Amino acid sequence: MEQIELKDLQGLIVRGYAELQSAAFMVLKVTDAPVFKKWLQQHINEVTPGNVKPTDTAMNIAFTFAGLRALGLNKDSLDSFPLEFEDGMTTRQKQALLGDFGNSDPANWQWGQKGNDDTHVLLALYAANMPMLESLCATVKQQLVGHCAAEVKMLDTSNLVKRKEHFGFHDGIAQPTIDGLSRKDSPENTVAAGEFILGYKNEYGQYDYSPVVPGAADKNNVLPASDQVSGMKDLGKNGTYLVFRQLEQDVHSFWNYMDKKTKNEDGSCNPEQMVKLASKMVGRWPSGAPLALSPDKDSETMADMDKFGYRQGDGDGLKCPFASHVRRTNPRDSIDTDKKTSIKIANKHRIVRRGRSYGSPVEESMDPMDIIKSDNKEGTRGLHFICFNTNLTLQFEFIQNFWVNNPKFGGLYDERDPVMGNHSHPLDSRQSGTFSVENHPIRKRHTDVPEFVTVKGGAYFFLPGIRALTFLASI
Ligand code: HEM
How far is residue 325's CA from residue 350's CA, in Å, rounded to a whole number? Predict the structure, then answer.
């Protein structure tokens, strides 16, 4: 096993900074590259590396393709980045691939929108509490904005009870364990480091192509030599591609739908069935307990349980529907005819998620019954979905295209992910979704599923290793 250079990784790869409960994402446009790079040189020691577990604040920094160009990275080096990164999320092809139609059309995004080249830098800022975060944000803003950068968007986050997302489900449970990092896990859930960090072997036993710079350009000799192109230096080593999607959640619509579909014959609400239908859509109960293990009721004792598959005990989807969000986003052992092959395939399409919620909950209790009675129409809320991977095509985009938005996933024929799928696809005859729940003797099909999630912004970023960051500050 290759030794992972923890010191050279940005910390977000190693941990989600769960102890640092407050976070904000600052999206910037570089307006004066030399001054911005000077700032980076002076503050590089404040960028949190992977070998440190911060207890007060943390800062990580990433760049879009346009951002790297704005810094002045030479053309040959820019050309060495993969096309899927350069293209970003908003070309016509990407729109189709990611399913961003209707209200999620990139032309209408609040930032990173189609035709807008202003999204250059992502500063991910974390702190142990709100006053510390405010102070960190104010300091960074004062140093940058108006001097060498313009604020494109300031994305705040919120901390919901029990690590829930806004629909009320415990999130951030299932993650692949990166082989070579300290955490030990089952072989099924241990995935080659090269799937998530450039410069290491991936699940194919190969090195993903890493961006390079001409040797002569690395005047201070900070970058390692490239193993892939002779005479070049490796700009990608210990870096990764970070996906950022601002996903707005319509919590009223989510629970009103569950209510409408599960009412008792006399028209009264059936809270138990409401929660059950929503859990069938997610594939886990609100506590986090997987339906594959606890099909009939929620179980707090299984809240963080992640050791399960679908093949044995739920090969027919009677417990956790094939269409559910978690079964689509990671089918685990249920893809192919044998367990081992299935896990091998699924593990070539994994991502590490680092998202944070934003906006205040519709109701503090987050209780579905309180939500359906609530007349709180104030504010918006959602998930700043963040994940990283080394191959956007085979990982994030694959999941989104071939699993989340695939109408034929798992033997189904005309439905997309019920939680976050886009039902405005031009190829869909109806502009609403269907959700099938496997049952005996026949499956139950729920129709007219609205779009609960709308994309409001996003971009692909390159999260460089610390040496690469030092190099970028010096160009
Ligand atoms: C607002 C939008 C979303 C919501 C509310 C949401 C919610 C959830 C919840 C509640 C879970 C189960 C808890 C867990 O295993 O961590 C989960 C799991 C997961 N989600 Fe999402 N999610 C959203 C968007 C996405 C997107 C855009 C992707 C990627 C394309 C994604 C990929 C995953 C993956 C890979 C898992 C873990 C599956 C597993 O390994 O079992 N999610 N999500």
Answer: 14
Nearest CA to ligand 1 atom 35: 329
Distance CA 87, CA 241 (A): 13
CA dist., res. 245 & res. 113, Å (int): 11
Domain boundary assignment for the chain? 6-245+458-474
Q: Is the CB–ligand 1 distance for residue 174 below 6 Å?
A: yes
- The reply to whether ligand 1 has any atom less than 6 angstroms from the CB of 284 is yes
Please tell me if the CB atom of residue 172 comes closer than 6 angstroms to any atom of ligand 1. yes
Taking residue 15's Cβ as centre, other Cβ atoms within 10 Å add up to 18
Residue 14: predicted pLDDT: 97
84 lines ligand 1 (CB under 6 A): no
Interval 192-214: pLDDT, tens: 999 999 999 999 999 999 999 99
**What's the rounded Cα separation, in Å, for the pair 270 and 216?**
69
Compute the distance from residue 227 Cα to the ligand 1 centre, in Å: 35
Q: Which residues of the chain have pLDDT under 70?
A: 1, 431
**Model-level pTM?**
0.97
CA of 283 to the centre of ligand 1 (A): 10
Please state, as a whole number, how many other Cβ atoms lie within 10 Å of the Cβ of residue 83: 10
Q: What is the pLDDT of residue 95?
A: 96
2 contact partners, CB below 8 Å, separation of at least 6:
180, 193, 200, 201
CA 51 to chain centre: 23
For 46-100, what is each residue's pLDDT tens digit? Answer: 999 999 999 999 999 999 999 999 999 999 999 999 999 999 999 999 999 999 9
